[in-house]
Amino acid sequence: MRPKVTMIAWNQNDNYVVTAVNNHLLKVWNSSTGQLLHYLVGHADEVFVLETHPFDSRIMLSAGHDGNIFIWDVTKGTKTKHYFNMIEGQGHGAVFDCKFSPDGQHFACTDSHGHLLIFGFGCSRPYEKIPDQMFFHTDYRPLIRDSNNYVLDEQTQQAPHLMPPPFLVDVDGNPHPTKYQRLVPGRENSADEHLIPQLGYVATSDGEVVEQVIGQQTVNQDEQGMEPSILDGMIRQLQLQQDQRNAAADQEPTSSGLQNGEGTPRRG
């Protein structure tokens, strides 16, 4: 097999270059001379994640489709720490991306099963307050196109960008408590009664009927006490002006423009 480079990254001070090769090896190079310094052995599948530490030039993170996450000392060519993303009952989960926090004390990864993995120093109790499953209720909802070929949400017949902020639900579509709904941008200052979604019964692909979020509250934002969106207000205002111009054009005789000596009608 001819080796191919799948990923490349410089360390924090650019003295070293690390390359991931499709034979599952990582190679550390001197960035000035091009000399091969170290082989980093440990991965059993292709690596597509190489992340350098934000301020420690010795540290490099690698993660791959084998579910392994390694912390390396690239100056010595040694392994500092190893994690394996084992998912109970499903085998390992391929790691697709990783990023360090700005202080270098934590890093977060996402895997092929939709999990967010957070590693670092300290206590994990603050993270336990967040539900295990968090989705927007509009995720995976079908879209349609209208007669003008514009995209609309099939259920509400609204343009997706004009819809109210979505609700947070679990994997079965059941809404989370109101304290989590305030985590959604646009719902931070809403009253509790406006954070309760409308529920309905929906048939799944297996024929099972489950209770799910089917729509938003129909109360206007002003009535909810929410801060109105500036963009939405501009869009509504422009639409109103266009409707008024169209109505005026329909009522005005077609020859009025010529009688006034104007070649084209004036824009409002």
TrEMBL record:
InterPro entries, sorted: Bromo_WD_repeat, WD40/YVTN_repeat-like_dom_sf, WD40_repeat_CS, WD40_repeat_dom_sf, WD40_rpt
A biological process from GO: cytoskeleton organization
Region: Disordered, residue numbers: 241-268
Domain of life according to the entry: Eukaryota
Alphabetic keyword roster: Repeat, WD repeat
WD repeats mapped onto the chain: 1-39, 40-82
GO cellular component terms listed in the entry, alphabetical order: nucleus
Record Pfam families: WD40
Alphabetical list of Gene3D superfamilies matching this protein: YVTN repeat-like/Quinoprotein amine dehydrogenase
Biased composition (Polar residues): 252-262
The protein's name: BRWD1 protein
Species of the source: Odontophorus gujanensis
